[in-house]
Each structure stands twice: as structure tokens, then as C-alpha cells.
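Notebook entry, structure prediction.
Reason for the run: the old model in the group folder had no record of what sequence produced it. Starting over properly, with the input documented here first.
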Amino acid sequence: MTYRIQRSATPDTIVFALSGEMDAEHVAGLQEFLANERDGRIALDLKDVTLVDRAAMRFLASVEAAGIRLVNCPEYVRSWIAAERPLQQAEEREPRS
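New structure, fully documented this time:
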């Protein structure tokens, strides 16, 4: 499974261009990159993403909710995020035992 992250910066935005298949393992790597970015707005360019699994989709939904922009997001990913958002919110409200 091939997956790449390419970082670029403009004067006002840091862009991570993602390509390939994105799964839970790749999410962990991307989280490390994002944790190192302290300044500026961040955008994830998903133009060349070919497939995402549920863990990746949930990650993308959470970072978007936190203010990171998703650009060139495939329609199936956008639809999946929209469908899962109410489920994620319900899970977050449930008391943990």
C-alpha cells in the first residue's frame, strides 16, 4: 500500500498533500506531522487520495471539526464524513464505564 505526505507552505497556509490509500497506520504518521505544526492555518489536500478506511475517515472528520481545512476532498469521503458525524457526536456524549 503506497501512501505519501508532501508538505508545502504558502505565506498563510501549510498544506499537506496526501496521496494513495489512507488507513489507521498512515493516520498515526500524519498526526505526528500535524503535532509539529504550531503556527498558521493547515490544509489537507486530498486530491490524490485513492481510498480511506473508517479510521482515516474518522480522523479527517475530527481534524476538520478542529479547524483544519480539507481541500479537494473526494465526494465519497465527504459523504461518509457527513453520515458518520452524528454517530461520532453520540459516542462522544455517551458516559464511559
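Summary: The longest helix spans residues 75-93.
The old model has been moved to the deprecated folder.
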